[in-house]
Amino acid sequence: MHTSTTAQASVPWEWEFDWHLTNRCDFFCEYCHPQIRYVLNRGRLDEPAPELVVQRFDELDRVCLVHMSGGEPFLFPAFVELCEGLTSRHFISINTNLASDDVAAFAARVPAERVTKIVAAIHQSERQMRGLSLGAYARNYAALRHGGFDVTALYVLYPPLLAGLADDLDRLRSLGVDHIRAKVFKGVYQGVRYPEGYTADQKMIVLANSGEYAFNRPYLDGMLSFRGQACTAGVTSFKVTVTGDVRRCASVPSGYGNLYDGTFRPRQGNEPCPAKRVLVLSQCLSYLVDPPVHPELGVEPNDLSSSHEGHSRKALS
Ligand code: SF4
Fold this sequence. Notes:
The protein is of the alpha/beta class. The chain has a single domain, classed as Alpha-Beta Barrel (TIM Barrel), CATH 3.20.20. The protein is 26% helix and 20% strand. It has helices spanning 34-39, 50-59, 79-86, 103-109, 124-129, 134-146, 165-174, 200-208, 216-220, 281-287, and strands at 6-8, 15-20, 64-69, 91-96, 115-121, 151-157, 180-184, 187-189, 192-194, 230-231, 237-240, 245-247, 255-258, 271-272, 312-314. Strands 7-6-5-4-3-2-11-12-13 form a 9-stranded mixed β-sheet. A two-stranded parallel sheet has the order 1-15. A two-stranded antiparallel ribbon has the order 8-9. Strand 8 (187-189) and strand 9 (192-194) form a beta hairpin. The longest helix has 13 residues, at 134-146. It is globular. The structure holds iron/sulfur cluster. Iron/sulfur cluster binds at residues 226, 231, 233, 248-249, 251-252, 273, 275, 278, 283-284, 287-288.
């Protein structure tokens, strides 16, 4: 039985896909990965038709869990119809900024029992700049919670945001946002590489405000490479790029054909991980054959943030 980045050891799907489904985004976060912020968001805005994607997943003849991130998934043309189609046979999870006007329609039309997780990033600087209140965020959050969806707020611990973090989290809680996680920033700020670059004081703030996110401590402890260890990525779990190309995972670009044109074929048999540094720790801990134990992760952490890490494994966002 397959294990998952978002669920307990035994799950009702066989294959897992981390799908970067669109480059469109209505935010322009300073801390967005440069490849997404400066390159992807400005090109290839020609997504496939929802019907084609649903057909391709159905043709695999496996029940799949499809993690959707981008870009902003709700900006995929006809996103609600896409989700309706996928959830008729498969399961989905979504990483979103929760700023779309379509959230209520999604909550009304997509079956909550087929949505394993919604990670709703807050991106507070962008919200302030665009005049989007935390109250508006909380209303969309509540629409999902009332619809029975498993939704968690995600706050990115970008160094300049640390000073206002506690106040923002208090405000969210006062607005009824009851599941919150805050995760380390992975990238470069003012010439310093993170998460390694947090100062001792910043690490204390990070660890004191992580909420439900269990992976900050392992990241801060430098758990960033599993080179040489056997991993199921490429056999039962895959990364799908915005062009439909299928890769081993977020960190390893080995190719397995193209999902959209029907040439995708998985590898047979596990292989050692070749990555010097991993991008999405939660995926590794979910897909490694014999994952290392970290005391902070306890029984089953709950993460997937892929690009925006929202994965989880209860044995990852
Ligand atoms: S351990 Fe992580 S980086 Fe390595 S192949 Fe597996 S999922 Fe990819």
